[in-house]
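User: I'm new to structure prediction. If I give you an amino acid sequence, what do you actually give back? Let's try with this one:
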Amino acid sequence: MRYTTLIRLIISTASLTSTAFAIEAANNSAIDAFLPEEVYPELQAIINSAEINAPSLQTHRNYNDEASERYEQAKARRYLNAKLYANIGPRNEYYQSGNSEDTSTFAMNTGINLYRPIYHWGAIEAGIKQAQLGSQSANLELEQKRSDLIRNLRADFLQLHLAEQAYNNELKKQKITDETIKRAELEHKSGKISKVKLRSILLEKEQSELSLERISARKQQITERFATTYGWKNPLKITATIPALDLEQALHWHKTAKQSLSKSAVYQLYPIQQQLNSLEHHKEQQVIIAANTRPLFNLFLSGVQGQRNTATDNDVSSFAVTAGINVSWNIFDGFRTRHQKMEAKIKQRRLEAQLEISASDLLLEQQRILNSLGLRLRELNILEQRYSIQSDEYLEAKQDLEAGRITEPQLQASELALETMQYKLYEARANTLMGISDYREFTRMTTTEN
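Assistant: Good question. You get back a string of structure tokens that encode the predicted 3D arrangement of the chain. For your 450 residues, that looks like this:
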């Protein structure tokens, strides 16, 4: 497919694209209510800090600055170039006819060369455009790194809450295990349980201690990442809870998002914008290649101060000025430029085909993420109901204990079942929040100006 064909395709869908962007913007506004920083307001301060202090983003800002400087360098090709020079050394003059004798002197020449392009068939402008596109690509990459960093930060923040909840649950479980061990030791002494049974119960305590160490190590690792990866040096506020989501509102957003899926909006996503930049960069390269086979026009001015011999005297100080239009024309280069043009056309077709494939793949990935999110929301809805049932069962167990219908260990078993269900519920909530965060970052549109 030719580049012009691709442009016509994009222009023909311009009105649909503007409508899709408006719908996508509304969807993004709705999805923002389910981002982790909306659930945990303190997380927004950490994100704001990471955008400034994260070492990886600081490095990529340097890449951005480098690309900006390359753009300024490219623009300098439009301007006047001036060079001063000086030559010093022996000068020999040999006369091939007449009665003049050859001379040998030690002299110094100084001069100035001024040069400015007049017309290079758009090659200079194409080089400047390429540098501008490179600056935009660097900015797009910075935005993508920022998006990935925020997504990882949200995940670590939620994992830290889950780890805290798991740690608390393990402490409660260990407390119950300690009481179980005391009863088991008494029962073993009275012969009610065997030594093997007692050893099994003691092993549960050892397993619980190992779990606590593992959870503590995970918490420490995540906490250290907040300092080293995200640049956050302040204490973290961890509540060990994952608040409930408004499932009805989330399901409504999910339905709207699926209905508004559009391939036209995909062209504003970071990967496609990068490919469009590459395609435009290659288009400008073809302008530069074409200019290599045409005459190039430049203004020049040269002034030389030195010494020379004349008919009446030797070593006469002189200043020679030359000005005019310089024309250079590459009329034959062994067909190198011809093959460069052919290669460029083949590459253009490849880039255009790859662009179409990428747009289709991204739309499919968007559909996949939404389908996965839909399943997560439904699973979360089921877990919310199961947790409600488990809570009611625990309340009934407490009433049964007061009425003497069950024993204390049975109540403790009910309490452990409730804690386990609560952790599963929190985990499902965190996974749903992360799924929404991933979709938000995946569909984040570019803000780079062309």
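You can read the tokens as a compact description of the fold. Here is one thing that stands out. The first helix runs from residue 3 to 12.
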